[in-house]
Structures are given as structure tokens and as C-alpha cells.
Amino acid sequence: MQAVLTSSPQLRILHRGLEDYQQSFDAMRAFTDARDADTPNEFWIVEHPPVYTLGLGADVGHVLNPNDIPVVQTDRGGEVTYHGPGQVVIYLMMDLRRSHPKARLYAREFVHKIEQAVIDTLARWQIRGERKEGAPGIYLSDGPHKGAKIAALGLKVRGNGCTYHGVSLNVDMDLAPFTWINPCGYAGMETIDMKTLGVTAALADVQQALAQRLHELLSVPADLT
């Protein structure tokens, strides 16, 4: 069931609920195909049934044993990742030209802002996250699980500057499926969620917090609207 959480001429935030990955993927592409210069940007908050997704350059050999979990080829960047219940997923349908006339040059800053939104959201629950050079996503910066990955990032930026796919943050998941792949192509990488770190947070609260921080960091400057 879809609910509109925020609506303005610049941005709509929609909560699409639990949705099959292929349905979301098809809808993202259809939205991006149909949008024009006046189409508001949209954030889609979703939760998926268990699924593995492959980036354009992914090596299927990193799927070690799918155990009946569907494997879907996508057109985002990156390697293999897992989506499942208890994970915040936010897809970002944005026109980067509204933030920078040379959208391709802005793409790196766009990624940086998404990662910062995750770091800031985790900090609300006293979890310290950090970036790793050359490995998009957010990793724990201290503690016994230092280096474990807690959030993944994968995007598609079309030649016209329009984006889709997005970011996922692990809240309260069955982590076993992450051990059946090499997450993001890294053998033996530990993947963790907020629950394992002792944080009991409602999924809806984390969804709202991350969406709000993304909204704040990715808002288009008034002089560029």
C-alpha cells in the first residue's frame, strides 16, 4: 500500500511498504523514462522480501549459495547485495541537473551526501559509521565489529542526470543470507544490523529518520530551482 509522506513541487516522499523487488525495479525505470524537466524528484521507502541483486559489473560467482532466494540482475553500479525484511531501503529518483548543471560532476558529491545521511542517522542511535575509500557504503568505525558493513549503496545515473536505485540500512534482519554471498564482492566481509549492536529501533522510525536526513542534505538550493 502506497502512502505519500511529503509532497511539494520539488520532492515527493512515498512509502510503498513491502514490495517485491522486481516490481520496484520496473517502477523505477518506468518513472525515470516518463519524467520530464518539471517532474518532482521522489524518494521511495520500501521493504523487500528476501532477494539478491546484482550490479552491472557483478560477478555471479560471488553468489555462493542462494538457498532459494531469487537473484535479480539490475542496472545499478556495484556487486551483489542482499535485501530482506527489517532493512530500510530508500530509492532516490532525482534529476541531478537541478543541483548542478554538469550532473556527472555532481554524482560524486551526491554519493557523499547519501553516505553522510546514513552516518548522521546512525549517530541518532549512538552508532558510529564511516566511509571506506573505494568501497561505497557505510561501515562501523569502532567496537568489536569494527569494519562490518551496515549500509549499502548502489545507483544508476543516466546520461541525462536522472538517478534511481539508492541506499539500504540494516535495522533488524536475518543476517544469514549475507553469509551466502560475498557482500559487494568481498569474501568474508562481516555484515551487521542495528539490532546486533544492541539497538532496538522500530523500522518505521529509522525509515523516517533516514528519509528526513536525505531530504535535508539533498534539497535543491533555492537559486537553482
Summary tags:
225 residues, alpha+beta, 8-stranded mixed β-sheet, Octanoyltransferase, acyltransferase, EC 2.3.1.181
Structural description of this entry:
The chain has 225 residues and is α+β, with helices and mostly antiparallel strands. Helices cover 23% and strands 29% of the residues. The chain has three helices and eleven strands. It has an eight-stranded mixed beta sheet with strand order 1-2-3-7-11-10-9-8, with helices on both faces. The protein has a three-stranded mixed beta sheet with strand order 5-4-6, with no helix packed on it. A hairpin with a 2-residue loop joins β8 (129-132) and β9 (135-140). The protein is globular and about 45 Å long. 38% of the residues are buried. The model has no long low-confidence stretch (mean pLDDT 92).
Weakly predicted, low-confidence segments = none
Report the order of strands and helices.
Answer: EEHEEEEEHEEEEH
- Helix-and-strand structural type: alpha+beta
Indicate the percent of residues in helices: 10-25%
Q: Termini separation (Å)? A: 31 Å
Described by the principal axes of the CA atoms, the overall outline is globular
Strand order of the largest sheet: 1-2-3-7-11-10-9-8
Strand tally, please?
11
InterPro entries: aa-tRNA-synth_II/BPL/LPL, BPL_LPL_catalytic, Octanoyltransferase, Octanoyltransferase_CS
Pathway: Protein modification; protein lipoylation via endogenous pathway; protein N(6)-(lipoyl)lysine from octanoyl-[acyl-carrier-protein]: step 1/2
EC number: 2.3.1.181
Enzyme class: transferase
